[in-house]
Design brief:
This protein has about 120 residues and is an alpha+beta fold. The chain contains 2 helices and 3 strands. Strands 1-2-3 form a 3-stranded antiparallel β-sheet.
């Protein structure tokens, strides 16, 4: 999860400054992919294939996505372009997730101070 920095010790001005920084440099939302990128080497069904002697086929690259209630969606990424798009989209999603969590933490702290009457947001 998010690194636990004690926001209670950060000044109001610095909280606002952190927020401004967090809102910058985010990848386009249109790229997001909530998934994992998985690399696998596989064995096939042929009896005398080299894969039976440890020389597995691959690598194969898959996009794996939790589809709710223990279900998983998985498919092969066939081309380098598809793999690059998947990596970019997954990285973008992770970046947004981290930023959203951090912004939420700052907003929570700002609200806490406001509710405690210790400052103005
Ligand atoms: Zn094989």
């Amino acid at each position: 999860m998010v690194k636990t920095l004690d926001l209670r010790k950060v000044s109001m001005a610095n909280l606002q400054k952190k927020k401004t920084v967090l809102l910058q440099g985010l990848p386009p939302l249109s790229e997001l992919v909530r998934a994992s990128f998985v690399k696998q080497f596989l064995t096939c069904g042929k009896k005398n294939c080299r894969c039976r002697r440890g020389f597995k086929h691959g690598p194969f690259f898959y996009l794996v996505q939790a589809a709710g209630a223990g279900r998983v969606r998985k498919f092969l990424l066939k081309t380098p372009a598809q793999r690059q798009q998947a990596r970019t989209g997954i990285a973008a999603h992770l970046k947004w997730q981290r930023r959203l969590a951090e912004i939420s933490e700052i907003n929570t702290e700002l609200l806490r101070r406001s509710a405690a009457g210790k400052g103005r947001a």
